[in-house]
Amino acid sequence: MIKCVILDDELLAISYLKLLCEQIDNVEVVKAFNDPKIFLNEIANLDCNVCILDIEMPGMNGLQVAELISDSKKIIFTTAYKEYAAEAFDLNVVDYVRKPIKKERLIQAFEKAKELIQNSHKKNFIEWNTNIGKTVIFTDQIVYIKTSEIDSRDKDIILNDGTAIVLKNLSFRNLLEMLPAKDFAQVNKKEIIAISSIKIFSTNEIITTIAEGEHFLKLQIGETYKGSLMEMFGK
């Protein structure tokens, strides 16, 4: 269920948006505001996951409002002015919908929001059968994953305190689908590294922050994975 809050200085625009939302399955309008200051005073206490913000408003525009709440809420911008598009996407919002808003276009925006919300909920941990039974592992604790040397169907996970856990019978493909994509990268056919564990990155090698005896663990970058790694690091 998407629970949204609307902010628009025009009451007719609010009424129209509410009408559209009521026609869309699994969307509930929790509250609507026509004043940015009142919206900001109340938003932290409202049970919602999406905010629909008009950009062009007197006093405080939607871009300024979004900067204050974008860490906690998914944002869909609405505006009649196309010149705000670049600024809107700089804020990493869900979507930018031009007025007059059409129902089909709003549905597209909600679908994007739904996918982002689901991903953020399901990917802060993984749950799988391990050498110690069915186990929940929080992804922010994982520093390194490699194919088991005992059985290639299994994967060894190293946690940030040095604990090693064996995931039983799990492919890298399925494992990567369970991990947050922005936090992990496959380096070669047998190894995945947490981005936070990378110390030095070159075209052929990654030096990690993971101690291996007197040195740091080094990983060789496979040819197949160079492109995606370079893209991840903006190279």
UniProtKB/TrEMBL annotation:
State the GO CC annotations: cytosol; protein-DNA complex
Where are residues bearing 4-aspartylphosphate located in the sequence?
Answer: 54
Q: Which InterPro entries match?
A: CheY-like_superfamily, LytTR_DNA-bd_dom, Sig_transdc_resp-reg_receiver, WalR-like
| Any one Gene Ontology BP term | regulation of DNA-templated transcription
One GO MF term attached to the UniProt entry: transcription cis-regulatory region binding
**Keywords, A to Z?**
DNA-binding, Phosphoprotein
Protein's name in the database? DNA-binding response regulator, LytR/AlgR family
| Species the sequence originates in | Chryseobacterium wanjuense
